[in-house]
Specification:
Blueprint lengths: L3 H8 L5 E6 L5 E4 L2 H6 L3 H6 L3 H4 L6 H14 L1 E9 L5 E12 L5 E10 L1 H14 L5 E6 L5 E4 L2 H6 L3 H6 L3 H4 L6 H14 L1 E9 L5 E12 L5 E10 L1 H5 L4 H72 L6 H28 L2 H6 L1 H16 L2 E6 L8 H22 L3 E9 L2 E8 L10 H20 L3 E6 L5 E8 L1
Parallel strand pairs: 11-12
Antiparallel strand pairs: 1-2, 1-5, 3-4, 4-5, 6-7, 6-10, 8-9, 9-10, 12-13, 13-15, 14-15
Helix pairs in contact: 12-13, 12-17, 15-16, 16-17
Length: about 500
């Protein structure tokens, strides 16, 4: 279990503001150190002044923030974007993910939130809006259920010959300006979009002066985090001149080139984001292992030594109080000595689970053999370890990652597999360190059985993330002789 001190230490390292206030008084209950950097004020000021949270909000945004807090009671959680004003006058944009907390009787007690500084993103969005205002293509977005206009860039007024405000006021105008002969195709495209995801269509629109313009519209759907359809987004190009002349191929090629460039940029951005996520995952694992090591040392140095001293004292007291009329006291002392021994054994087990000394002292393979033996004694499942240590010992982060994955895999075997035997093999090939955990249990096909995969739950996700954090891969498949095999490959 993560201690309060450990949690506070972790929260102190993140960039987002983590906050908690009382629901009745708005009294600050918790504020992590990031608040001082974002708000430009010491955290003590918020603890001293319950009104400060709202007072630093930009005056134009305060009504929305106050309304959000009132609506939270009904909705349970909300996301909101608003501005705060620092003492030096600088304005910062925040995206706040807020939720309510209730006590055991269901009474509202707290508002909890995580506020991220999105100032750079908002500046980028403003820049993007400025860019969209300069391009010739129509960029549009409408609600999927009502066709209500959500966004329309200035190019629309030039092409459609109507002010953008007319489209915001009339959800039917988008279809009504389409040429009557093309309206069935456009309506059919919108219905097919739900299944296909994206489409490109050419159609005509009629301007108020009667002029007909040809458009080529690249349209796609957008879904929310729950997978619900929320928008139709599109980029419509005026291809009237291209239609009027046969030499329009060059314009189409340019459109494809721009689209390709956009896709390449998106791929590059996703690759960079994945690299940042992997770096963060590695950092989190390092922090976790450091905390485990420190906790193990604390248990040994403080609790273990104290219990040993207590046991010695009780032994001395027992030998000095051995009179017959002290039989009951002697029995209690003997029971206390037994309890001290049990506690010491339990603490030793906890220390081994948190940070097995065998791993630090002797390496991965001996640690796996030790843990497999402990697992067999605890569960009655025969666990066998095979393999050879590499000539040069693996990096510490590789060793602990593979050891933790083996722990989680054995736990899954004990919980779900109904196995009588599990085999662990550690081998090295082609610059890779390969760990295999195979059981003879009921097995499952991860490609076909989502129910079987869900049985493993968070454990499977944790193992996969641990492997990815050190640049490795995790695969789950049917074992050669039935059951399940977990195969981990990491570079070493």
């Amino acid at each position: 279990m993560v201690t309060k001190e450990t949690l506070s230490a972790i929260l102190a390292t993140i960039d987002s503001v983590v906050w908690s206030i009382a629901a009745d008084t708005y009294q600050t209950l918790y504020l992590n150190p990031a608040a001082e950097r974002v708000y430009g004020r010491p955290t003590s000021a918020f603890y001293a002044d319950p009104k400060l949270f709202l007072n630093i909000v930009h005056p134009e945004d305060r009504p929305r923030v106050a309304k959000m807090l009132s609506e939270l009671i009904e909705k349970g959680s909300m996301n909101i974007q608003y501005r705060v004003v620092r003492p030096d006058g600088e304005v910062r944009w925040l995206e706040d993910k807020t939720a309510i907390a209730r006590d055991a009787e269901g009474r509202l007690v707290r508002f909890d939130g995580v506020a991220s500084d999105i100032t750079e993103r908002m500046v980028a969005n403003k820049t993007l809006t400025g860019i969209l205002a300069t391009i010739d293509n129509i960029v549009w977005s409408i609600a999927a259920d009502t066709y209500q206009t959500l966004y329309l860039n200035p190019a629309a007024e030039r092409v459609y010959g109507r002010p953008a405000s007319a489209f915001y006021a009339d959800p039917k105008l988008f279809l009504n300006i389409v040429h009557p002969e093309d309206q069935p195709r456009v309506a059919n495209m919108l219905s097919q979009l739900v299944e296909k995801g994206s489409m490109t269509i050419q159609y005509r629109v009629i301007r108020p002066d009667g002029e007909v313009r040809w458009l080529e519209d690249m349209t796609a759907i957008a879904r929310d985090l729950e997978g619900q359809l929320v928008r139709f987004d599109g980029v419509a190009s005026d291809i009237t001149e291209r239609k009027a002349r046969e030499a329009g191929l060059a314009e189409r090629t340019a459109e494809l080139a721009r689209t390709t460039q956009s896709l390449l940029e998106q791929i590059a951005e996703r690759k960079a984001a994945n690299e940042r996520i992997q770096a963060l995952s590695r950092h989190l694992v390092e922090v976790q292992e450091s905390e485990r090591k420190e906790l193990s040392r604390e248990l040994h140095d403080r609790v273990g030594q104290n219990l040993t001293a207590l046991g010695i004292n009780l032994e001395i007291l027992k030998t000095r109080r051995s009179d017959d009329d002290r039989a009951e006291l002697r029995a209690r002392l003997e029971d206390s000595i037994s309890l001290v021994g049990s506690i010491a054994d339990a603490i030793e087990n906890v220390m081994s689970e948190l940070r097995p000394p065998m791993l630090d002292s002797h390496g991965l393979l001996p640690a796996l053999r030790w843990y497999a033996n402990e697992f067999s004694q605890r569960t009655g499942i025969d666990a066998v370890v095979s393999g050879k240590e590499p000539k040069q010992r693996l990096a510490q982060e590789i060793e602990i990652t593979l050891f933790r994955i083996a722990q989680e895999a054995l736990n899954n075997v004990a919980k779900h597999a109904r196995a009588t035997r599990v085999e662990l093999e550690l081998r090295h090939s082609g610059g890779e360190c390969i760990l295999s955990v195979s059981d003879n249990g009921i097995g499952f096909d991860p490609a076909l059985s989502s129910e079987a995969m869900s049985r493993l739950g968070r454990g499977m996700v944790t193992m996969r993330e641990r492997a990815q954090a050190v640049g490795g891969q995790l695969e789950v498949k049917a074992a050669p002789r039935g059951g399940t095999q977990i195969l981990v490959r990491v570079p070493c």
